[in-house]
Amino acid sequence: MNKVSSIRAGYILASLFGFNCSTQAEEVKKYEPAWESLGQRDAAPEWFADAKLGIYFHWGIYSVPAYGGEWYPYHMYRDGNVHEHHVKTYGEPSRFNYHDFVPMFKAEKFNAEDWAQLFDDAGAKFAGPCAQHHDGFAMWDSEVNPWNAADRGPKQDITGLLEKTIKARGMKFITTFHHARNGQRYADKPEQWGGYNSHYAYHPDFATSSTDPDISKLYGNMTEAAFNQYWFDQLQEVIDQYSPDIIWFDSWLKMIPQEYRKKFAAYYLNEAQKKRQDVVIAYKQVDLPSSVGVLDIEQGGKKDLSESVWLTDVTLSTKSWCYIEGQKYKPAELVVRNMIDVWSKNGVVLLNISPRADGVINQDQRDILHKIGTWMKKHEEAVYGTRAFDVYGFGHAKTDAGKHGGQSATTQYTAEDGRFLRSKDGKTLYLFMLGKPDAGKEIEIRDLAGHTYCPEGGFKRITVLGSGVEAPFHWAKRNFWLKVPDSEMDDIATVFKMELNEPMDWK
Question: 193, 275, 198, 284: which is closest to 242 by C-alpha?
Fold first, then answer.
């Protein structure tokens, strides 16, 4: 019997005995472009909650001038310091436009293998590029957008090369999109030609007003309907070509009509099902329903424990998100301690770095990333795959308000501040002291008093993670005391492993 006959016979037998003949593909739920349909899934898959740290980078045409920041194309067409610098260095923007930087973005020293290994060494579990910033330049091999890294500038498929090297190391792949802001929304409103919600200032003297079919695509100068479709088509292309595990959106996503946001989400989720991917959509403010995506808070964190998994994007640099001359960077101690605070409140961290235009990630950043990675590897048991405890922690660190909500990502924690995470199997609680506590010091933890959040059954043993040295502990009437043993403490953050007598049924 040939293959076709065998299949036909199988269907006949199945129909006789009442078996369901539908294929697995037919049984898979299809997402419709409606919020109710799109919200019928876990917006934060298990692997994402387990991951704790991802890395991405602001790297593009704006890295060439290396002045002011990634918003250089916004400011060069408007009065101010960047405009003055541009005129002095390159000439009037009416003669030297943003697209004239493209041939200068050569990325001649870019090495995808080296970058992916650095991300892996830093302890990241997902990584990837800023696929397109507000400036309209695509960092992938695009047929939709003529201004792309494969055809112009580097003449390399940056996204494709990184997808292969990142996934080869077992990491998930993220692509971030900021291009909702790229559309020119003020062409017919001369009084608003410098309007904020379009990245480029519209003016007849600048290429930003060009109607040339090629140039207009970089500057987003097209009808609103055409731009909305262009916005979607680029996302579809990246999904089809690179299968990202996370698609992350910057602010201004709400400038895109809901019809297109729903269309994107349905396409992405349906394609992910075909590829057996559990994917994440990240958004800011209220640009998507919380049932559809994971909320991202820029350069900040939540002030208290969150019931749902969330994300924060923070940058290693202090002056801008992209590389600029004279850039400064945060010390590893500050970064790790603030990451621990995020994790303790059910968050995940997306850390940004800043490569130079030639493709070099400088030694200052590499040293910090390796120091972070060393700490992560030493304490990986307490980090990856863990979950928030019933309370996030204790301490007296002063937390300023974050620029985009929540609290600042540069809080100065000390060894007086503690944070909790717990194992998923309910057997272990981890206490992170955000600094190096002194040997012999007694740490008072009121939230672990017998009548408050102490796990039932108490602790069997408490040790310093990494050394195994036991730490004495006891309960008083209204609190719990842990004595720091005479053991080597970690300069960045010391972790105590608190083993339970009885596993807790943590959900």
Answer: 275
Q: Kindly state the tokens that stand for 461.
A: 């043993």
* 330-351 per-residue burial string, b: 16 or more CB within 10 A, e: under 16: bebbbbbbbbbbbbbbbbbbbb
What is the Cα–Cα distance from 432 to 413, expressed in whole angstroms?
Answer: 11
- Confirm if 86 and 96 have CB atoms less than 8 A apart: yes
- The answer to whether the beta carbons of residues 1 and 9 sit under 8 Å apart is yes
Tokens 């083993």 sit on residue:
499
How far lies 463's CA from each of 420, 445, 498, in Å? Answer: 15, 16, 7
Helix (H, G, I), strand (E, B) or coil at 353: strand
Say which residue the tokens 């995470």 belong to. Answer: 421
Alpha-carbon gap, residue 322 to 325, rounded angstroms:
10
| CA 412 – CA 194 distance, rounded (Å) | 38
Structure-derived torsion over alpha carbons of residues 388, 394, 398, 401, reported in degrees to the nearest 10: 30
Residue 222 token pair: 């097209």
Phi/psi at 148 (5° precision) = -135, 155
C-alpha–C-alpha distance, residues 175 and 154, integer Å: 18
Rounded mean pLDDT for each run of 10 residues along the chain, 507 residues in total: 40 43 57 98 98 98 98 98 98 98 98 98 98 98 98 98 98 98 95 95 96 97 98 99 99 97 98 98 98 96 96 97 98 98 98 98 98 98 98 94 90 97 97 96 96 94 96 95 95 98 85
The rounded distance, in Å, linking the Cα atoms of 141 and 241 is 9
Q: Which residues, at least 6 apart from 290, have a Cβ–Cβ distance to it below 8 Å?
A: 43, 308
Question: Which is it for strands 393-394 and 418-422: parallel, antiparallel or unpaired?
Answer: antiparallel
- What is the amino acid identity at position 341? D
Six-digit token pair at 233? 């088509």
**Residue 476 DSSP class:** -
Asked whether 340 and 397 are in contact (CB, 8 A), the reply is no
Locus of tokens 């080869």: 168
Residue 506 confidence (pLDDT)? 73
8: left (phi over 0), alpha (psi -120 to 50) or beta: alpha
Residue 456 CA neighbour count, 13 Å, CB half: 4
Return the CA Rg of the chain: 26
Q: pTM for the whole thing?
A: 0.94
